[in-house]
Design a protein that fits this description.
This protein is mainly beta. It has one domain (about 5-270): Jelly Rolls (Sandwich), CATH 2.60.120.200. It has one helix at about 5-15, and strands at about 30-40, 50-55, 65-70, 75-80, 80-90, 95-105, 110, 115-120, 125-135, 150-155, 160-165, 180-185, 195-200, 205-210, 210-215, 230-240, 255-270. The protein has a 17-stranded mixed sheet that branches. β5 and β6 (about 95-105) form a beta hairpin. It is globular, with a radius of gyration of 17 Å.
Length: about 270
């Protein structure tokens, strides 16, 4: 979700969804122990012991349109056993689009593990929901040097696709070397799907509904290409517009639009 060259990104998608899949060489872990979760079995504001917020309207490096709010149940609310992250058009002034960007930073930070997020995506051209991870400590410097793991990204004008990506100093969209792959998804707006990554010292595997669709191995050439040996935290958000999300415009009739999250679970291997 950060500072991407989407002309190059979309070109590489058209050319075959990119990158190398090392299916033969990657051994998956079989046993996982739950270490952190939110099942959303409560009502109201999301649990403050597990979630914080990144706020404001800065464009977030992508010329996004929304103002992110904090602990505002208009934009982030738990009800009926789910979390709803809702993008709205308030119709009021310069910052009329509002949404939420929820984070687990310093409340849920992990080095390796399996992350699962079961969610139903918001429908509409101009929307850009994401489930992703960033470095907690930025040990290797600012983006993209300390890494980014995009567990799931979706843009509303590509109704049948979701994307999994990795970013680093060596591999990123700005220089056209990103590690990314798109995969077909049926009924992303009407049905829940399970978005997941398995992250170890040697590889990161992307899964949709428990099926592997992309695998990236650690080349062991240093942190410039593999900064994924430090703590990361989770982000959940629904962006409005932006360089990629708004590439084909914004349908004003889509609001309010919510990403509904049934649960978030983090596991460690044993």
């Amino acid at each position: 979700m950060k500072k991407k060259n989407y002309g190059l990104f979309l070109l590489l998608i058209v050319c075959g969804y990119t990158a190398t899949v090392q299916a033969q060489s990657i051994q998956r872990h079989k046993k996982w122990k739950l270490v952190w979760s939110d099942e959303f079995n409560y009502k109201g504001v999301p649990d403050s012991t597990k979630w914080g917020y990144q706020t404001g309207r800065s464009g977030w490096g992508n010329n996004e349109l929304q103002l992110y709010t904090a602990a505002d149940t208009n934009n982030a609310k738990v009800q009926n056993g789910s979390l709803f992250i809702t993008a709205r058009n308030t119709g009021e002034g310069k910052y009329k689009y509002t949404s939420a960007r929820m984070v687990t930073k310093n409340k849920g930070d992990w080095k390796y593990g399996k992350l699962e997020v079961k969610a139903r995506l918001p429908k509409g051209r101009g929307l850009w929901p994401a489930i992703w991870m960033l470095s907690t400590d930025d040990s290797y410097g600012g983006w993209p040097a300390s890494g980014e793991i995009d567990v799931m990204e979706h843009v509303g004008y590509m109704k049948d696709s979701i994307f999994g990506s990795l970013h680093s100093k060596t591999y990123n969209h700005v220089i056209g070397t990103q590690k990314t792959k798109g995969v077909f998804i049926a009924h992303p707006y009407d049905q829940f799907h399970l978005y997941a990554v398995e992250w170890t010292p040697d590889h990161i595997i992307f899964l949709l509904d428990n099926k592997v669709y992309y695998q990236v191995a650690n080349e062991h050439k240093g942190h410039e290409g593999w900064p994924f040996d430090k703590r990361f935290y989770l982000l959940l958000n629904v962006a409005v517009g932006g360089n990629w999300g708004g590439k084909e415009g914004l349908d004003e009739s889509v609001f309010p639009a919510a990403m509904q999250v049934d649960y978030v679970r983090m596991y460690e291997s044993f």
